[in-house]
């Protein structure tokens, strides 16, 4: 038991670093992912994760494979794409989803071409799939810093952020300033995605953000409980994924998202009207 | 355990630890008030920014009466004028029904009154001037009922101005939310998520939130459409109660009998004012026929 579940983290410092990283990520992925779900913005979240690519690529081209620079430029390009897509939605008759998908395709291709023009396929793979097991203290500090800022922001603006998501007109009628929250939330989402990108790459960054949140939403009806549960499930997925990657000799990033996915499928199967659990319950009640 | 542990330590170490901890405590007590002061100041600034200083003084910011006066207001909807040359006053403490054929501009009038829409010509004077002193209940709410919030917490949002964007509702707010739920007959549903409520009960819930919002002026766009008779009666009783408290009420109605029965004032609209005054004088067959003809003429 100890050998399988704990020893890897005792023996290998890279496993410890990775574990600390994914646990810190789980802390912000839970609440931010759930709020994305609540606002019906999962698609936007997915798009923004790709919007990080051109910035990260630009950072890579300018400075080389430095995670700190790539994270910063990635954040900037994510924010720029979010603003551009927002402005395009305001100014054109196209709906928000169309604009976001168009910008996602643009960023993905532009970013890939940039990396390939100045680097190798391996570099591109690193941008897309990340290197969880290569997390060093610097990257860990960045993830921790982002997580701290996002968590503090969430704590301070928790209520207006939520109400803006489900009854914006009412918030506008009682609070003086409501134009700040949509942008603030977008910035938080991009920051969270960048933190995930530092560990898992841009393609996988959405996985730990949305899957535990979706799984938690299957079980918990109250928002606070759902947030706590999604943090817990995210931590569990990160831990399980790291173990899986070590024991089955699989790439670590995809195994973490796979573990999150397995948790999500279990949650799906165990909730709802057609779930296994509710069938057992129904059988218990009927004579 | 800690006792045994400390006994093993040399006396000098214990003394040093005590010294350090007491020095730390002294430092903290000297710094703490300043940190708290900074925190409070930052909080106030942020709140002033987010809530624009609105109603921070509570009662003082709330006027005793509210009135809305239209002075030749005209509104355009698309290319065609939706409302032309509207003049008249919803007096402080009055309870008015707005009636008229479909497309007569009733909702537009209410949005103009609420300040959600600006007139193309003419003006609208509000007393008090801040449009947020007015509560507006739209015809179809844009509330995402899938959001996991209980009826009680939803109603408590009505007290938002009292505690601002940064604080959380306290027990007093929850008590008044419970009372508001009782007034609209939803006490049993307090802990249920809003997604489980029927359309009628959702309307009751919105009224309960208006109770907590506690504004002097209420604009309601078809508050009784698509709900059952019992709910409509209960909510009409709430309107009467607000009227009794001297609040200004304007409601768009389809049910003319309801307007005759419960609303002392009435405005008949057909893209312009057909008649505006006491309901029994205004709501006649003749004006209604005129209103229909005016709409066809347009």
UniProtKB/TrEMBL annotation, chain A:
It is found in: Cell membrane; Membrane. Belongs to the ABC-3 integral membrane protein family. Pfam families: ABC-3 (PF00950). The keyword Membrane applies. It comes from the Bacteria. InterPro entries: ABC_BtuC-like, ABC_TroCD. Keywords: Membrane, Transmembrane, Transmembrane helix, Transport. It comes from Vineibacter terrae. It is a multi-pass membrane protein. GO terms for cellular component: ATP-binding cassette (ABC) transporter complex. Its main location: membrane. This is Metal ABC transporter permease. One of its GO terms (biological process) is response to zinc ion. PANTHER family: ABC-TRANSPORTER METAL-BINDING PROTEIN, IRON TRANSPORT SYSTEM MEMBRANE PROTEIN HI_0360-RELATED. The chain crosses the membrane at residues 14-37, 58-88, 100-120, 127-160, 180-211, 223-244, 256-276.
TrEMBL record, chain B:
Gene3D superfamilies: P-loop containing nucleotide triphosphate hydrolases. One of its GO terms (biological process) is zinc ion transport. Keywords: ATP-binding, Ion transport, Nucleotide-binding, Transport, Zinc, Zinc transport. Residues 68-296 form the ABC transporter domain. GO terms for molecular function: ATP binding; ATP hydrolysis activity. The keyword Nuclease does not apply. Pfam families: ABC_tran (PF00005). Belongs to the ABC transporter superfamily. This is ATP-binding cassette domain-containing protein. It comes from Vineibacter terrae.
């Amino acid at each position: 038991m100890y050998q399988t579940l704990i020893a890897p983290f005792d023996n290998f410092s890279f496993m410890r670093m990775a574990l600390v990283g994914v646990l810190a990520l789980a802390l912000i992925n839970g609440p931010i992912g759930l709020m994305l779900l609540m606002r019906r913005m999962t698609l936007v979240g997915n798009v923004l994760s790709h919007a990080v690519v051109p910035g990260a690529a630009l950072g890579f081209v300018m400075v080389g494979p430095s995670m700190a620079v790539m994270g910063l430029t990635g954040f900037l390009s994510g924010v720029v794409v979010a603003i551009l897509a927002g402005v395009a939605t305001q100014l054109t008759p196209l709906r928000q989803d169309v604009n976001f998908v168009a910008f996602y395709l643009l960023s993905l291709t532009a970013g890939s071409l940039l990396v390939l023009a100045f680097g190798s396929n391996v570099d591109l793979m690193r941008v897309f799939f990340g290197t969880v097991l290569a997390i060093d203290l610097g990257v860990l500090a960045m993830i921790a810093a982002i997580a701290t800022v996002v968590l503090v922001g969430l704590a301070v603006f928790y209520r207006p952020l939520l109400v803006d998501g489900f009854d914006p007109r009412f918030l506008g009628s009682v609070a003086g300033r409501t134009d700040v929250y949509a942008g603030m939330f977008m910035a938080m989402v991009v920051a969270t995605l960048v933190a995930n990108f530092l560990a898992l790459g841009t393609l996988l960054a959405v996985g730990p953000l949305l899957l535990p949140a979706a799984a938690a939403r299957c079980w918990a009806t109250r928002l606070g409980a759902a947030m706590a549960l999604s943090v817990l499930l995210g931590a569990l997925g990160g831990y399980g994924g790291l173990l899986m990657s070590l024991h089955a000799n699989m790439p670590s990033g995809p195994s973490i998202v796979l573990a999150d996915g397995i948790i999500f499928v279990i949650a799906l199967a165990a909730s709802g009207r057609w779930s296994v659990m509710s069938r057992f319950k129904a059988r218990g009640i009927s004579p | 355990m800690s006792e045994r542990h400390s006994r093993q330590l040399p006396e000098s170490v214990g003394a040093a630890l005590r010294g350090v901890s007491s020095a730390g405590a002294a430092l903290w007590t000297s710094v703490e008030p300043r940190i708290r002061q900074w925190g409070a100041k930052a909080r106030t600034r942020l709140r002033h920014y987010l809530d624009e200083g609105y109603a921070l003084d509570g009662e003082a910011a709330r006027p005793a009466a509210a009135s809305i006066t239209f002075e030749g207001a005209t509104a355009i909807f698309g290319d065609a004028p939706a409302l032309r040359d509207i003049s008249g006053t919803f007096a402080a403490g009055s309870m008015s029904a707005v009636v008229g054929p479909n497309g007569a501009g009733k909702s537009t009038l209410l949005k103009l009154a609420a300040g959600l829409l600006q007139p193309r010509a003419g003006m609208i004077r509000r007393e008090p001037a801040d449009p947020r002193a007015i509560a507006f209940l739209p015809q179809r709410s844009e509330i995402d009922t899938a959001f996991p919030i209980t009826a009680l917490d939803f109603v408590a949002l009505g007290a938002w101005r009292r505690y601002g964007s940064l604080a959380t509702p306290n027990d007093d707010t929850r008590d008044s939310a419970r009372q508001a739920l009782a007034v609209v007959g939803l006490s049993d549903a307090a802990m249920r998520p809003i997604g489980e409520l029927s359309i009628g009960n959702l309307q009751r819930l919105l009224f309960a939130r208006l109770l907590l919002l506690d504004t002097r002026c209420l604009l309601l766009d078809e508050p009784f459409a698509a709900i059952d008779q019992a709910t409509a009666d209960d909510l009409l009783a709430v309107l009467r109660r607000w009227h009794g408290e001297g609040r200004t009420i304007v409601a768009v109605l389809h049910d003319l009998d309801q307007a005759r029965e419960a609303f002392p004032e009435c405005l008949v609209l057909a893209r312009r004012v057909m008649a505006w005054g006491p309901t029994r004088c205004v709501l006649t067959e003749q004006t209604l026929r005129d209103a229909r003809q005016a709409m066809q003429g347009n």
